[in-house]
Amino acid sequence: MPSPLQGVGVVLPVLAAPMAGDPGTRALVGAAASVGSLGFLAAGYKTAEALATNIAAVRSSVSTFGVNLFAPNSLPVDGDDFRRYRQAIRVEADRYGIDLGAGEPLDDDDQWRAKVDLLVADPVPVVSFTFGLPEPAVVTALRAAGTLVVQTVTSVDEAVAAAASGADVLAVQASAAGGHSGTLTPGIRPPSVALTELVAAVRNAVSLPIIAAGGLATAGDVAAVVHAGADAVMVGTALLRTDEAGTVPAHRAALADPAARGTVVTRAFTGRFARSLRNDFIDRYDAIAPAGYPAIHHLTTPLRRAAAAAGDAERLHLWAGTGYRSAADGAAGTVLVRLAERL
Ligand SMILES: Cc1cc2nc3c(=O)[nH]c(=O)nc-3n(C[C@H](O)[C@H](O)[C@H](O)COP(=O)(O)O)c2cc1C
Q1: pLDDT cut 90: percent of the chain above it
Q2: What kind of architecture, by CATH, is found in domain 3-339?
């Protein structure tokens, strides 16, 4: 267990990963804290104002928690590719009477500056970054405010760069992970590397504490990755079916469906590589989906919202790591404690 995490009061080395969108809730952060673990409010896709509201609400009952931000690292989409993709998926949107419009691709930075300003002005115990490396001045300001800074990395090179940027702790994420890869080079498909190998390689190259994530499904998996050199682990998929997660019913059901067709890494939903349960949308569009984040994310959002509301798992991003078959229902705290049983 990395001493910096102990320093902020974390005693259970199995952490609850940040999950933007519906699954990551304040209740999940509370459930993690209640068993001595650490949960993260996922700031991604939220306004800075909504983040502030969430922080205030969590603070009223939880003293140790983190906030996770998407650091800017946009992957601009080619205009022609964007229009071709929009035309291709129009037939899916038509089913829900959704107009995908004719406008230009939307590239935004998820209110980066406003969120950083908020976290510097009103510090929280832990801040983690994914997708990009923040400028060193941001890391310096957060650390000066007393915040522990965690950086997601997916390779040894990224770990070295994160250490140079001033991060306190690395979240080392393997491609088995559910949801978006935190890769710093989003135009390149994340290579498939076993988490134990990746952790061992990062351990050799960088002396920062390591939180390992990606595909961890059992107490045996957790013990193996700690044996390989991780100080703590973080799980997302293992929590998706728990009581406290906000996972929409179609996603929950798909995770538990014995007929589920495994997971794939795709950019069909957002233009950035992410691991999802395989479904019809991926089968139809993965091969032609262009790189382009967040433009493709914004393009498909109304369709995915409508699919979620209709309980249509075939047109929904079903983020899941490779261990999804072990994802249990019940209390999130119980799941986290069980995963630590062999440490
Ligand atoms: C539904 C979902 C949403 C996610 N959203 C985020 C996010 O907002 N920020 C982030 O850093 N990681 C995000 N991740 C990745 C997790 O932080 C973590 O790396 C991953 O869940 C670990 O792999 P596992 O799902 O196999 O446990 C997400 C994962 C899932 C499953």
Answers
A1: 99
A2: Alpha-Beta Barrel (3.20)
